[in-house]
Specification:
The complex is a heterodimer of chains A (397) and B (102).
Chain A (H helix, E strand, L loop, with lengths): L2 E6 H11 L4 E3 L8 H11 L6 E3 L4 H13 L4 E5 L1 H16 L5 E6 L13 H4 L7 E4 L3 H16 L7 E6 L7 E6 L2 H7 L23 H33 L6 E4 L6 E5 L3 H14 L4 E6 L1 E3 L3 H8 L4 E6 L9 H10 L7 E6 L9 H17 L20
Parallel strand pairs in A: 2-3, 2-4, 4-5, 5-7, 6-7, 10-11, 10-13, 13-14
Antiparallel strand pairs in A: 1-8, 6-12, 9-11
Helix pairs in contact in A: 1-2, 1-6, 3-4, 6-8, 9-12
Chain B lengths: L39 E5 L9 H5 L5 E3 L5 E3 L9 H5 L5 E5 L4
Antiparallel strand pairs in B: 1-4, 2-3
The chains are: A alpha/beta (397), B mainly beta (102).
The complex binds iron/sulfur cluster (2 copies).
The site of one iron/sulfur cluster (SF4) has 13 residues of chain B, from helix 2.
Chain lengths: 397, 102
């Protein structure tokens, strides 16, 4: 029997890594991710989890160690946040290009300066192009479920790409909620043993990470991209099988009260739960609003996204990150995904929740009203924000 | 593209690459012309050579082949022109010349 217990999201991630029976964990602690490696180190120390725990000297080393560990066929996990992900950055690209399926949980954190340990999506957006499968969690159950699922998809021999599981720092990572933990036998049914087809073996030597001169590099990148786009099929299949075993079915784009909605709010991450409260309130008042949430961020779920928003009039995209010198990243991407569509909503972008700033139910109310107002006035010219003191001047896009 | 000797450096498509560009067979560098960007080339003067084999031992690219008559000679298909063989030769039997000088 599965059991329902109160669990911090960080510990839910650690629990998933334990139930996945990871072989190697190499991680460096950094706020707000600390509770994940702490709990895993404890599990390894007290014998709950039979794995090698490598207390490395930096995040760059953490991920580098993970690549070595996958290359011999070990199930491998790491975790970081914000500045740690930045220090890892070089190796993040190497992992996906060399097709090493590491699973990494990231407790999303703003980037310095000013120094901040609190949540936003600056760290995610800096790694959006790195070729990792990426999902955003909304709550603790998803933190557990998606971590488990990530191993399954990343290690699938038809995929072999690393995967990032994003959870907002503090506002999700440190929240305690009821989580349903499955039976080990169910987990074992869902997650087969990792069989890395190119594991280093002295009887059959191979070379990983060879030089790629100009006559190879372009072809290598195209081959990688084709394979990455194709991983979508196994991403969906993984969710289908997850649902069949555990009873919770996930999709790349979550739709909440979207039926006939003239206005849709688009969010990523844990703030979606707050936004849903506003949607409930507005629906109760008879307003025609709904919410779509991107669960899958990479590879971008073009089809499901277009399907989800095609009948709406106004799509308000909420970004938790500033892209200096241009429009906000999720907004940019979403607007571009709709560019070629004949029938498309008016897309408006609003930014907020930077560096851990709370975005309240009222704030989301403002986001919806302001978004509709901008859409009615015509195209958006300004950087639109919520919860920032002082007027926005001279920022036109 | 394992084991395939390429006619030109561009004789393959992206479909021919292994997952993660892994090279699945050891020693396949011998199939590639690694000596195409040399700026200097070693020239052997057999008259000075005493067949000691130091050049063969030191060449970082294993580009020196053993001839049937026991002499050692740089193979220009692989030689990168680093000049180490010329440096270590106790008999000064190898000289480096500019690649342009035919
Ligand atoms: S020049 Fe360098 S690469 Fe060429 S044969 Fe001599 S040692 Fe080898
Ligand atoms: S090191 Fe000089 S002497 Fe010795 S084998 Fe090579 S060329 Fe001949």
């Amino acid at each position: 029997m599965s059991k329902r217990i109160g669990l911090e999201a960080s510990h839910a991630v650690a629990e998933a890594v334990k139930m996945a029976d990871a072989d190697v964990i190499a991680a460096y602690p950094i706020t707000p991710q600390t509770h994940i490696p702490e709990r895993l180190a404890e599990m390894v120390a007290n014998g709950e989890l039979n794995a090698s725990y490598l207390p490395v000297e930096s995040e760059h080393s953490a991920l580098s160690a993970c690549l070595g560990s996958v290359s011999v066929g070990a199930r491998t996990f790491t975790t970081t946040a914000g500045q740690g992900l930045e220090l890892m950055h070089e190796v993040v690209y190497v992992a996906s290009s060399m097709r090493f399926p590491v699973v990494m949980a990231i407790c999303n954190r703003a980037l310095s300066a000013p120094l901040s340990v609190w949540a936003d999506h600056s760290d995610v957006m800096a790694v959006r192009d790195t070729g990792w499968i990426q999902v955003f969690c909304e709550n603790n159950q998803e933190a557990f479920d998606l971590t488990l699922w990530a191993f399954r998809v990343a290690e699938d021999p038809r995929v072999l790409f690393p995967a990032m599981v994003h959870l907002d720092g503090f506002s999700l990572s440190h929240v305690i909620e009821p989580v349903i933990l499955p039976e080990q036998s169910e987990v074992d049914r869902f997650l087969p043993k990792f069989q890395y087809p190119f594991a280093l073996n002295p009887d059959k030597p191979v070379t990983h990470g060879a030089f790629g001169p100009p006559d190879i590099y372009s072809e290598a990148k195209v081959a990688q991209e084709v394979a990455f786009r194709r991983s979508k099929e196994m991403i969906l299949q993984g969710w289908k099988e997850f649902g069949d075993i555990f009873g919770r079915y996930y999709s790349p784009v979550e739709r909440y009260k979207v039926e006939g909605a003239k206005t849709l709010l688009l969010t990523v991450g844990s703030l979606s739960e707050t936004a849903k409260i506003v949607i409930d309130e507005r629906r109760a008042k008879g307003e025609s609003v709904g919410l779509v949430r991107l669960r899958l961020w990479r590879p971008f779920p073009f089809e499901e996204f277009r399907q989800a928003v095609k009948d709406t009039e106004v799509l308000i995209v909420f970004d938790r990150c500033i892209s200096h010198g241009t429009v906000a990243p999720v907004f940019c991407e979403v607007r571009s995904a709709l560019y070629d569509e004949e029938k498309k909503p008016n897309v408006v972008g609003i930014t907020g929740g930077l560096g851990g700033r709370d975005v309240s139910v009222n704030d989301f109310g403002y986001v919806i009203d302001r978004g509709v107002e901008i859409a009615e006035k015509g195209s958006q010219r300004m950087l639109e924000t919520v919860g920032i003191r002082g007027e926005m001047v001279g920022i036109r896009g | 593209m394992a084991g395939k000797k390429l006619k030109t450096a561009y004789d393959f498509t992206w479909r021919d690459l292994e997952v993660g560009n892994i090279l699945t067979e050891a020693g396949n560098a011998s199939l590639r012309r690694t000596g195409d960007w040399r700026s200097e080339r070693p020239i052997l003067d057999k008259a000075k050579c005493n067949k000691c084999g130091l050049c063969w031992l030191y060449c970082p690219d294993a580009a020196i082949k053993v001839l049937e008559d026991g002499y050692y000679e740089p193979d220009l298909y692989y030689c990168k022109g680093c000049g180490i063989c010329a440096k270590v030769c106790p008999r000064e039997a190898i000289t480096m010349i500019e690649e342009e000088e035919k």
